[in-house]
């Protein structure tokens, strides 16, 4: 099995091998998770100089796939902006210039997948913390842009006051542009809708930011990316990653429900959503091991199949137990979407 570091060649070509150094376009990644957003920006020519997330398993994944040990376990809810700035300077140097901040604060307080969601969820305060960091970095590091990603439900009527406050904070030093993008429009075999807010430093005079146009190519469907894969390995107590053939994330939970015996899932409910070979996938996963059912109806998707439906490269590897991996792949920004946004920023702003 190929256990080499995922996408390292791409990362090195875009950074170490292309002369990107102190004068390159550096970005700081907050709430980086497994690194899907970062991978897109790296592939577009940016250099990530610092990445942070509170999830230790996600940071282990991040550092497995991105050279340099840039990922740090940081709880931004309990970390002051000054402490974050100090950590950044210690890691990257006193004369650091940061072109952008990218990240998607946890969205459980807004997501439809959380039946108990409400606008006062403490996790929602991380979005406001993000805005505070953006404005502080503008003054301290010369920030030129930011990218904020979240679920479309953040724009629901009941979140109106919260979102208006967030927009107000983000607009202090930046012109902001919002658009809901569907990953299936950017060669990702998944109908995943997310809101992106791009902020452009007012002093740049860059003009109106235009989000990337949908790909002119045929929309990818489930069959295009996972139909030729071998059967995955089922989770067991003595299973280790190195013993899993093909790819170490090509594993899934053993089907226990009698519903898997027929291969036809009941209509309604979210726990047994069966994907269709001829359509883009639903958003790949949610909750604790709640990953969608394979089109054959006999089992759930493997973690690796979910990664492919998110648009990750073959060599990308997730660390942690199965629940941690499901969480990582569920929260990730599809790299092809991130790359298109990053290319638009590079062309229009920088």
From TrEMBL:
Bias class Polar residues marks the residues at 1-22
Coiled-coil segments on the chain, per record: none
Asked if Methyltransferase is a keyword of the record, the answer is yes
User: Which GO terms of type biological process are on file?
Assistant: DNA restriction-modification system; methylation; negative regulation of gene expression via chromosomal CpG island methylation
Query: Active site: which residues?
Result: 107
Which controlled-vocabulary keywords does the entry list?
Methyltransferase, Restriction system, S-adenosyl-L-methionine, Transferase
Chain residue ranges for the region called Disordered: 1-23
Q: Which residues form the signal peptide?
A: none
Q: Which Gene Ontology MF annotations are present? A: DNA (cytosine-5-)-methyltransferase activity; DNA binding
Pfam families associated with the record: DNA_methylase (PF00145)
The answer to keyword S-adenosyl-L-methionine applying to this record is yes
* Reactions listed under catalytic activity: a 2'-deoxycytidine in DNA + S-adenosyl-L-methionine = a 5-methyl-2'-deoxycytidine in DNA + S-adenosyl-L-homocysteine + H(+)
Q: What is its EC number?
A: 2.1.1.37
Q: Which domain of life is it from?
A: Bacteria
So what family is this one in? Belongs to the class I-like SAM-binding methyltransferase superfamily. C5-methyltransferase family.
Per its record, how is this protein called by name?
DNA (cytosine-5-)-methyltransferase
